Fold Protein-disulfide isomerase.
Amino acid sequence: MTLSSALTVDVVSDVMCPWCFIGKRRLEAALKSVPQLDVLVRWHPFQLDATLPKSGKDRKQYLSDKFGGLERADTFYKQIRAAGQEEGINFAFDDITLSPNTLDCHRLILWSRDDDLQDEVVELLFKAYFLNGEDLTRPEVLVRIAEEAGMQSDLVEHLLGTETDLDKVEAQIANAQKSGITGVPCFIIDGRFVLAGAEKPETIAAALLHADETRTDPQAAVSN
């Protein structure tokens, strides 16, 4: 597979979004169903709540404020639990104590692109947060994830102590919003077709096949 021939799937996502974790699983299932296609998946940043402080916010307080009470939040998250179980994800929402500001997570994902490790990093971030209830605002957690994914963890540790690429991530989020993206996950296929939300694998697969069948110039695939 080469960058020029691959069908691109640009995923706009936030690591504190449970539907984005579900969407990742559904995308993976879709890709397995169309093995004849060469697909390049790239991850792009979004923030569900940019008002969260850098240190995050107490999870119960966050949910109460967002949904107008914890009972309403519980009703909403029951649906997510059920959807997650269908995809083999056992969300441990009760273990999450902090709703994080995810800008540093997105910086980590950005840095992992050059080493072709985005998928591994995104996966580890989702698992750390949704399965283990880890605090994604802690640099040591992100450094450990970087090491587990195969990145240069010492370099990541240094960069996290700076504002390197913070403006770039914020600009990418602003561009996503300007393009009309208001919720995630959002799948942009071949730069031409948009799937908003965690669509079923068969829907994603159909979109991939349609995008491949209607391509006129592989060189026109979006590159960021």
User: Anything to note?
Assistant: The two ends are 18 Å apart (CA to CA). Residues 218-224 have pLDDT under 50 and may be disordered. The domain at 7-220 is CATH 3.40.30.10 (Glutaredoxin).
